[in-house]
Amino acid sequence: MPWRNTSNPYQIWLSEVILQQTRIETGVAYLERFLARFPLLSDLASAPQDEVLKYWEGLGYYSRARNLHAAAIQLVEDFGGEFPESHLELLTLKGVGPYTARAIASFAFGEQVAVLDGNVMRVVSRLLGDPAPIDQQKTRKEFQQQLDFWVKDSDSRKFNHGMMDIGSVICTPTNPGCMICPLESQCVARKEGLTAVLPQKGKKLVRKTRYFRFYLLRKERELLIRQRPQAGLWGGLWEIPNDETTAEEWEAKKGVGETVWLGSGKHIFTHFDMHYHVFSMELKAENYPIEGQFEKYEKIHTFAFPRAVLNMFDQHLPGLTKPTDK
Ligand code: SF4
């Protein structure tokens, strides 16, 4: 893993934030593109937010990209372009939470703090034989205290890399490799035959289903697009006009006015499933009472869109999203 060999806090920060988003192979490709365009903290801080979002396009959780950009500016303006070395100071940066602050402090500066991700939660739960639900804040706090006690007076880089590796490669959710685990002799779950029932989880998240209609409104070879507000879902990204509808209306596949139904799809968010229809219409009149701006097909790929909208383009207007740098 390329970021393992560096103690550069900027690269560690980027890799931690990007790799929280996606599988390692995909994340490494994004990281390389990001570092090629923004090799230094100052490059990221001085870039327009739109461009940062464009390089993040497809990763989801766009607030993280906006926070990354805001924190880069904060580091240049308030910290003289240098990263603070303690996790407590790192926590004051926009969007930097306990996991990322601890990862930077440990991997870049050797601070003796433990890094607790989902995989490490599983290892600790089994190691202690602790049935406390790992999706609760109280458990996270207790496990964090335990790990911080263990990491004291040790090489925190090695400790954290070791725990994260055991969690991702050996102590897997099903069929953990206890036979080759360096923690086997101390592991309560292994001794008491609890590996299949630990860790425990609390209440299941109730997923909602929401229904949307998206509109490809065209004028010759131009498409109507608009930018979303900075706050909220897809904040700061571009989209095509759309509205939310009820399950009954959605079933009827009926769009607004003369629009023609093209197809349907589904996009999965953390808290809800979005079912959508895509409608299309060639606009004839000169004035349209619709918020947005017309952009030529050839320019569409220069704007940052969420993955769901990119999928709609790929399906119904192929060739539109072909960026030159991917
Ligand atoms: S012995 Fe088995 S259950 Fe215990 S930490 Fe190692 S892999 Fe996980």
Q: Would you kindly provide a brief summary of this structure?
A:
This protein has 326 residues and is of the alpha+beta class. The chain has 13 helices and seven strands.
Q: Top keywords for this entry?
A:
Nucleoside Triphosphate Pyrophosphohydrolase; alpha+beta; 15% strand; seven-stranded mixed β-sheet; 3 domains; 326 residues; Endonuclease Iii, domain 2
Task: Write up this protein.
It is a single chain. The chain has 13 helices and seven strands. It has 326 residues and is of the alpha+beta class. The protein has three domains: 108 residues, Endonuclease III, domain 1; 74 residues, Endonuclease Iii, domain 2 (Orthogonal Bundle); 109 residues, Nucleoside Triphosphate Pyrophosphohydrolase, CATH 3.90.79. Strands 1, 2, 3, 4, 5, 6 and 7 form a seven-stranded mixed beta sheet that branches. A hairpin with a 3-residue loop joins strand 5 and strand 6. Helix 1 runs antiparallel to helix 7, helix 4 crosses helix 5 and helix 8 packs across helix 10. The longest helix is centred in the first third of the chain and has 17 residues. The two termini are 22 Å apart. The mean pLDDT is 91. It binds iron/sulfur cluster.
